[in-house]
Design goal:
8 strands, alpha+beta, 204 residues, Maf protein, 29% helix
Length: 204
Amino acid sequence: MKRRIVFATGNENKMKEIRMILADLNMEVISMKEAGVDIEIVEDGMSFEENAEIKARSVSRVLTNDIVLADDSGLEIDYLDKAPGIYSARFAGEDTSYDIKNRIFLDRLEGVPDEERTARFVCAVAAVFPDGTAETVRETIEGRIAHEISGDNGFGYDPIFYVPEYGCTTAEMTPEQKNELSHRGKALRSMKKILEKKFREGNL
């Protein structure tokens, strides 16, 4: 039976990025939803790494023959003691639109100068393999919180995350640019190296 990579997400925007980055592994890459897995996952870890592994292990218990990947990512704003951090998706309620969430952070940082608006996107990617072993990687992209919402190419907090070297928010970048720079893009490429090494060594 050919192994697949199943990603523990139902987020189609995320799946587009994941498929682009993992395309040259020559493996089927599907979401847990496409694999027919519909389970409630309680993310009660205290770090991005713990939450990513909790998600991956939850799906791996159902799909024992597949390689299961999961990510946990979020925004850390230094001025707000690294909030929202691991609560990024749940901040102000999971059903609250990101337009509202982004507006809340812009309001909280109103009048705060650029040098104090430093922030980063963090992404941890965990892989759980059919033998039960796990690997986790963590990557970041540094930037600052913009003064206004700008761009509609991204999702989540992208419209308020400004990257000074590029003079734009991550929501104003092309998908290719964003994948090259982003926390998730970097973490997926780091994980891809681990997968390639395991394939070369015959461990998968």
